[in-house]
Design brief:
Layout: H1 3-12, H2 19-25, H3 37-58, H4 64-75, H5 77-87, H6 97-101, H7 108-126, H8 128-144, H9 155-165, E1 172-179, E2 186-193, E3 198-204, H10 207-225
Antiparallel strand pairs: 1-2, 2-3
Length: 234
């Protein structure tokens, strides 16, 4: 066995009984017809479930909104990229010569996808418990030593920073609906980025909470559009 693959399994804390699954998880679509995209799809779902379980146990006093924001932070591309680098994935990825020369082994999206594929491969190799153990090994200490507020960056601030970095005017917020009695109202707020012709809505028990949710959704939409092939890149 390639000693680099053996070392990776040690770092993961899981030794594959079906090594071909790990090989496939490490294979970019440029490297072979037997690539890792299906495993990535599976691994994404397993990762979200495993992280949700960790957060549910660690932050017992937090509500759904806070837990959702923390999870989104932990499983976003930037976070997975850092974990992939810590695991040494650039050294073991299987890419075409062209992709390798183009720096694909260091590309955040490729590394994040490969890590999700590995988690999917662990799930197929041994079931949910081993996959959950890998996620625990990767993220458990980080989650265990934190408070929920440390992971819930203000979405409005993050959105404003994202737009300003691209010299796009800041968004406008407006209440589009209120529901319920005065003591238990639900607010619906629209977040609009006029320069891009985009808008997203969010709901909350206060105007501020609704604005934060709308900003979070807008940020997700903008980041998706900013990926290669997305509307902002086409």
């Amino acid at each position: 066995m390639d000693p680099r693959i053996d070392a990776l399994q040690q770092r993961l804390g899981h030794r594959f009984s079906q090594p071909r699954l790990l090989t496939r998880a490490l294979t970019h679509r440029s490297g072979s017809a037997e690539h890792n995209e299906r495993l990535e799809f599976l691994g994404d779902a397993v990762l979200n479930l495993a992280v949700s379980g960790l957060l549910y146990e660690r932050f017992s006093g937090s509500d759904e909104g806070d837990l959702t924001r923390v999870r989104a932070h932990l499983v976003r591309e930037e976070s997975l990229h850092r974990l992939a680098l810590q695991l040494g994935l650039p050294e073991v990825l299987r890419l075409s010569d062209g992709e390798q020369r183009g720096g694909g082994a260091q590309r955040a999206s490729i590394l994040a996808d490969a890590l999700e594929a590995i988690i999917g491969a662990v799930y197929l190799d041994g079931g949910f418990e081993p996959a959950q153990a890998v996620v625990q090994r990767l993220l458990g200490e980080l989650i265990g030593g934190s408070e929920v507020d440390a992971w819930t960056k203000d979405a409005k601030t993050e959105l404003q920073e994202w737009l300003q970095a691209r010299r796009i005017a800041v968004p406008a917020y407006r209440i589009t609906a209120t529901r319920g009695q005065a003591h238990a109202q639900t607010f619906e707020v629209e977040c609009a980025v006029a320069a891009l012709g985009m808008s997203e809505k969010g709901e909350g028990k206060s105007r501020r909470a609704a604005e934060q949710e709308a900003a979070r959704r807008m940020l997700e939409a903008l980041k998706a559009s900013d990926r290669p092939g997305g509307p902002l890149r086409s």
